[in-house]
Amino acid sequence: MPQDAMTDRLATAVEEMSRTQTLLAENQQRMLDAQPPAEMGFAHPKYQERLRAEGFFTEFKHPVYQNDKACPAQGVPQATIDLVDKLREGRYIGGRVEVKRGAKGSVHLHYPSGTPDDRMRNNGLFRTFEELIDKITAEMQATGA
Predict the structure, then answer these.
(1) Mind listing the pLDDT tens digit for each residue in 4-21?
(2) Where do the domains of the chain lie?
(3) Residue pair 100/89 in contact by the 8 Å Cβ criterion
(4) How many CB atoms lie within 10 A of CB 49?
């Protein structure tokens, strides 16, 4: 076999291998692109970090109850959590909300909510837990209670 024929055959084989490798790389990239994004499980450090940032693991310093139901601190801003611990016993927001402190420092918030009218009136006075605590705190400061 002459030298030129071997060189031509070798060049053709190299070109064919190069095309094959290019096709394989393109197919592999398509397969990677078709994969669904990796989902973070509950134990994943990034997911745990996100839960902490959103306040999932925050707790009140003492138990807090609204109308005798435990009030979770999840999602409550730290500033509000600090204010709850400083609440003093008394009636606030025109006598509508009563704050009581338990023997072990627990905070009990009582207000009428048994009827739709009660709930509508409460909604006009405070819409969120944060707003309720802010109004009680502002009234405590204004009256010096």
Answers:
(1) 778 888 888 889 999 999
(2) 1-38, 55-143
(3) yes
(4) 10
